[in-house]
Amino acid sequence: MKALIQRVSSAAVCVNGDCIGEIGPGLLVLLGLDRGDDETRAARLLDKVLRYRVFADDEGRMNRSVADTGGGVLLVSQFTLSAETRKGLRPSFTSAMPPVEAEVLYDECCKLLRARHGNCAFGRFGADMQVSLVNDGPVTFLLELTD
């Protein structure tokens, strides 16, 4: 399970020209689900996302989390984060969670996030989405769980 987080001034996700989710200052989270991921791992990763310190404190140091600031979180599924890219010139998706299982886990991630953080929005699993963002910094981190 991987989460590519970007500190944003704003972010939005649209499907077929309709904006289905948007936030102001906060985090855009692109979520990659791998084979073997489960609700327990999802809860751990979401807790890390919410507590990861990427926002400036009064001294300008990255010492505050999105939970501390009350910023928004836009969660978007992105299976391409699970691609194997070390060999060749074409990504392999053999490590990605199959779509039917991934949709169930993504929906659970959305429920978990809603329960933990009030200011959140979501992409639509499996949809052709257009994601727009203003990356603040730019600040981008790839979060992965160690077992």
Explain what you see.
By secondary structure, this protein is α/β, with parallel strands linked by helices. The chain has one domain: D-tyrosyl-trna(Tyr) Deacylase, Chain: A (3-Layer(bba) Sandwich), CATH 3.50.80. Helices cover 24% and strands 41% of the residues. The chain has three helices and eight strands; from the N terminus they run E-E-E-H-E-E-H-E-H-E-E. The protein has helices at residues 39-51, 66-69, 99-116; strands spanning 2-15, 18-23, 26-32, 53-56, 62-65, 72-77, 120-122, 129-144. The strands form two sheets. Strands 1, 2, 3, 6, 7 and 8 form a six-stranded mixed sheet that branches. Strands 4-5 form a two-stranded antiparallel ribbon. Helix 1 (39-51) crosses helix 3. The longest helix is centred in the last third of the chain and has 18 residues, at 99-116. The radius of gyration is 15 Å and the shape is globular. The mean pLDDT is 96. Its EC number is 3.1.1.96, 3.1.1.-. It catalyses: a D-aminoacyl-tRNA + H2O = a tRNA + a D-alpha-amino acid + H(+); glycyl-tRNA(Ala) + H2O = tRNA(Ala) + glycine + H(+). InterPro entries: Daa-tRNA_deacyls_DTD, DTD-like_sf. Belongs to the DTD family. It comes from Parahaliea mediterranea.
Looking at the structure, the CATH topology is D-tyrosyl-trna(Tyr) Deacylase, Chain: A
Describe the oligomeric state of these chains in a short phrase: single chain
Helicity level: 10-25%
Residue fraction in strands: 35-45%
| SSE sequence, one letter per element | EEEHEEHEHEE
What is the distance, rounded to the nearest whole angstrom, between the alpha carbons of the first and last residues? 11 Å
Instruction: Indicate how many domains the architecture comprises.
Output: 1
Q: By CATH's scheme, which homologous superfamily applies?
A: D-tyrosyl-tRNA(Tyr) deacylase
Rg, alpha carbons: 15 Å
With helices defined by DSSP (H or I, 4 residues minimum), what is the helix count? 3
Are there runs of 5+ residues with pLDDT below 50, and where? none
CATH-defined architecture: 3-Layer(bba) Sandwich
Shape: globular
Structural class comes to alpha/beta
Tally of strands = 8
